[in-house]
Every structure is written in C-alpha cells, then in structure tokens.
Amino acid sequence: MNKLLLFASLMFVTSASYAAVQGKEVTYNANGTNLKGYIAYDDAIKGKRPGILVVHEWWGHNEYARKRARMLAERGYTALAVDMYGDGQQAHHPDDAGKFAGNLAKNTELAKARFESAYNLISKEITVDSNRIAAIGYCFGGSVVLHMARIGEPLKAVMSFHGDLGTEHPAEGGKVKARIASFTGEDDPMIPATQVAAFKQEMEKAGVTYKAVTYPTAKHSFTNPDADKYGQKFKLPLAYNAAADKASWDEGMAFLADALHVGAITKRN
Known about the structure:
Blueprint: H1 2-18, E1 21-30, E2 33-42, E3 49-55, H2 63-74, E4 78-81, H3 94-106, H4 108-123, E5 128-138, H5 140-150, E6 157-161, E7 179-185, H6 193-206, E8 210-215, H7 227-234, H8 242-259
Parallel strand pairs: 3-4, 3-5, 5-6, 6-7, 7-8
Antiparallel strand pairs: 1-2, 2-4
C-alpha cells in the first residue's frame, strides 16, 4: 500500500509539473462577427508578462496555431492564437483557403478591425503587461502581422515566418512602431530573392529596426510538420524543414526577448 501511495504521489507531482501551461477557448467580436481564439499562459509565473498574438496560416485557426501559442507560453509569454476568418472557420482545400485569405486582402479595414479586436482582448488579460504586445504570423499570418506593423499598430515586435513580403502599403518613416523580423526559405518560389531584397530596401528606407533571415534549402511553410502532407496532397511547393524550423524559432525567440526586454522568468513555489 505504501508503495502504491508513493507511486500515486509521484504521478501527481509529475502531472502538476506539466500542467503549468494552461489553455482556454475565448470568443470575441469584430463588426458583429464572432471570432474564436485560444489563449495559452503559464500559471506558475508570477506577475504580468508580454502578450503575443499568433496569426494562423491560410488554413485558418487550427491546432498548429494553438501549438505555437503553447510554445510561447512555455517561454513565459501569454499568447493568443487569433481567428482572422471568423467563427473559427478552417479551410481544408487551397481553393477555400485562397477565398478566405483573399477576402481579407481585399478588405484591409476588416482585417485591421479583427486584428485590433484580438489586440484589445490580450491587452486586458490579467497576466499581460499591456505595454508589451507583439505579434507573430505564419504564411498568410506573416503577411498580416507585417501589414499591421507597416500601418503603425502599437506593437513592440513583429515576426513573419514564411510570410509574403510584398505590399501595396510600404512602411513609411516614423510610422512603424515595431521591430520587425522575417524568416524565409531560399528555395521558396512564393517568396523569391527579389522580394526579400525589396523588403530589405523598404525597411531601410523607412528607418525600421529589422532583420531578414533566409534559410538555405528551405521551402514554403518550412516550420509546419504537416507541410509535406499538404504539399503532396494538393501538389503545392510546401515542405517541412526541421533544421530551418528550429533555427528560425531559436532566432525568433532571441529577437522577441530582446525587443520586449524579457529577463529571467520567476515562477511561484
């Protein structure tokens, strides 16, 4: 019996150590449309910490976006995986994904309203320091967060992972408040070297503090382990690259910590 109790106690301690990162469903609103997000945070951390918005790929708010939110929570942030499409809609075919993303590309004011609604939500979270908000995005989401930085949203940092770098609204001197980082693949036909060069020129002309990293042999969607499956199923030039995924995440986390002035994480006893 004593051995059984000891084993049960050890199992409880082990489970508790993995239960620090909490996740919760949230519903918020923009222009009458319900948006369904997911907030992740570590409840063992004392005090307020920076808040990070995570904008999904063109497939919509799915488990991949939530996974990245939890990874950020493990780093000591509070993260909100946002819903840019409304009602938690997800695309299961590129045609549908293109329609969802295209609708927002054509209606930038709607995209702005939905992003700002998410920004306001995370700013009011009890665990969040509202003066330190950043945003990261993947593919479609990368383009979204870059656009928000370009138009002057009050973000401290923005990171785009394999997001389109082109824009009809280039950054203007004195308008961009965020530090910006872009991570792309050298073998990504959707983001050619000419686009990367133009992005760098745009950032420098506007006086933005930025970094643009390109990874050799990496293709589009290189951070998503499901990229190979999507690429093969729909005959798209997508491929996961574990080395580029790890390198971009590590480099991105260092960039984020520096921009948000993050020190050592203090946890409750």
